[in-house]
Design a protein that fits this description.
This protein has ten helices and eight strands. It has 322 residues and is α/β, with parallel strands linked by helices. It has two domains: 7-210 and 301-315, Spore Coat Polysaccharide Biosynthesis Protein SpsA, Chain A; 228-298.
């Protein structure tokens, strides 16, 4: 008896993408067809308000292999991905965005490398279409993250990538509440390879993630995979001590030898402000790590499901559940 062709799940978090969803689904299915794999499409509605939910329901009614998960509100991109990974049942799972910046044509190359034995295949973004400032900031961020992370994280690799079922099971079993998928994907280890995929232009030219949102994602990545912010404070403390010794030496020299020391409050205020700023910085850095501990201890779910379409009840069972 011939073995059935492998099942590949494609997880797509969706936020206000109603106009592009039919084109996206068609492009994904066309890209997967030549691979000979069976396809399961998992669309996660992350609190859309533009009618995306209705479009997703319609697409699911057309094909039972299209699964839809409606979250109760907007929980964020990473949470929506996590919900999609929980539902996906494929032998391999591909994560991609809904805005066509992740080129569906890259699916064939990812599946081919997976068949060669790689458990993780990630897209290396090339040919970005954003403005010069945003491209420069992305370039700087990925290299900064790679240099400070305790886990080697590939540069220019976002969420778009393929995960073997074994990797998905490990990620789904992690207790972490606040997640950064590219970092966790690298942390799992196994055989990993990157393939260049041209970064497309948004179909409507209107980004869904604000500058503040991008800054928060960058902060999440750094604090989740590096203790460097804490160690930097040691360096700052050392600089503060040197500044203090220099000021003290300067003052004592003029007091004891030249008699030019002028009583006043300027040096006192300056020094007090300097050390006060350092203390505030240290408290802020410590607070970021304490906040992550608090989020983890209270263990609120990262997402809440409102309803689903074409999703069996047992899809929500976690690894190790009876």
């Amino acid at each position: 008896m011939a073995h059935p062709s492998p099942l590949v799940s494609v997880v797509v978090p969706v936020l206000d993408e109603a106009t592009v969803l039919p084109r996206l689904v068609e492009a994904v299915e066309e890209a997967a067809a030549p691979t000979g794999c069976r396809l399961e499409l998992v669309l996660v509605n992350d609190g859309s308000t533009d009618g995306s939910g209705s479009v997703m329901d319609f697409l699911a009614r057309e094909n039972p292999h299209r699964r839809v998960v409606h979250l109760s509100r907007n929980f964020g991109h990473q949470a929506a991905i996590q919900a999609g990974l929980r539902v996906a049942s494929g032998d391999a799972v591909v994560v991609m965005d809904a805005d066509l910046q992740d080129d569906p044509a890259g699916l064939a190359d990812m599946i081919a490398r997976w068949r060669e034995g790689y458990q993780v295949v990630y897209a290396i973004r090339v040919g970005r279409k954003e403005g010069l400032v945003k491209r420069a900031l992305f370039h700087l961020f990925y290299r900064l993250l790679s240099s400070v992370s305790s886990t080697p994280i590939p540069c220019d690799a976002g969420n778009f990538g393929l995960l073997d079922r074994r990797v998905v099971t490990i990620l789904d079993g992690l207790p972490e509440v606040r997640r950064y998928l590219p970092g966790l994907r690298a942390w799992t280890g196994f055989r990993q390879v990157g393939i260049p995929v041209e970064r497309g232009e948004r179909y409507d030219g209107r980004p869904r993630v604000s500058w503040l949102g991008l800054a928060r994602l960058a902060q999440e990545a750094v604090f989740s995979f590096s203790a460097v912010p804490l160690t930097i404070f040691y360096a700052i403390a050392g600089i503060a001590i040197l500044a203090f010794l220099s000021l003290a030496g300067f003052t004592l020299y003029h007091k004891l030898f030249t008699g030019l020391a002028i009583p006043g409050w300027t040096s006192i205020i300056t020094t007090a402000c300097f050390f006060g700023g350092l203390n505030a910085l240290g408290i802020g850095i410590l607070g970021e790590y304490v906040l992550r501990i608090w989020d983890q201890v209270r263990a609120r779910p990262a997402w809440v499901v409102d309803r689903t379409v074409n999703v069996p009840e047992n899809a929500w069972r976690r690894p190790g559940d009876g």
